[in-house]
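User: Some background: our group keeps a shared notebook of sequences we're curious about, and every so often someone picks one and asks for a predicted structure to add to the entry. Today it's my turn. The entry only has the sequence so far, pasted here. Could you supply the structure so I can complete it?
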Amino acid sequence: MTTLILTVVGSDRPGLVATVAHIVDEHGGNWENSRLAELAGTFAGVIQVSVPVERVEELRASLHGLDGLLTVAVHPGSGSDAAEAAQEVSIQVLGNDRPGIVREISGVLNAHALSIESMTTETRDAAMAGGRLFEASVVARVPADADPEALRAALEQIAHDLQVDITVA
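Assistant: Of course. Here's the predicted structure to add to the notebook entry:
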C-alpha cells in the first residue's frame, strides 16, 4: 500500500464525498483522513488514502474522470512519521476582523519554526458591537528546540498590536 493525498474542489452539491469514496473503494483504497468543507458554495477537501501500489494509476485516471464535477489532484504522501512524535500547541484567536491577522500569526509561527497541522478561520457578525469578528483555531507542531517563552511573548505582542485575544494551550 502507498499513501496518496487527494485535493478536491468543485461546486457544492449532494453526493460529492460519496462519489470520491466509491472510486477509492473500487480501486482497493482506504479513506484514512480528510478535511472537507463548503465555503461560499464551493466544496473543497484534502483526503489521505492508502491504495495498492499497482492500482495508483488506474485510481488517478478514474478520479480525473470526475472533471466537470470535481477537480482532483493526486499527490504522493510524504510518509513522514516525525509529526506523530512532535509536541503540539493549540492557539485560539478572537477579535475584530481586519486584514493581516492570519499573516501576522503565521509569520510568528514560522519565525519559531512551528509547522501548522491544522487551522480553521471564520468571520461572523459581532452581535452586540456591530462589525465583524475574526476567530481562528490553530494546532501547530513544535520543534524540540523551540523556546516556548519566546513564542508566547511574540504571540502576546501581536495580540496587543492586532487588538485580538490569543490563547495558547
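Suggested note for the entry: The helical segments are 16-26, 56-64, 82-85, 101-111, 148-162. The radius of gyration is 19 Å.
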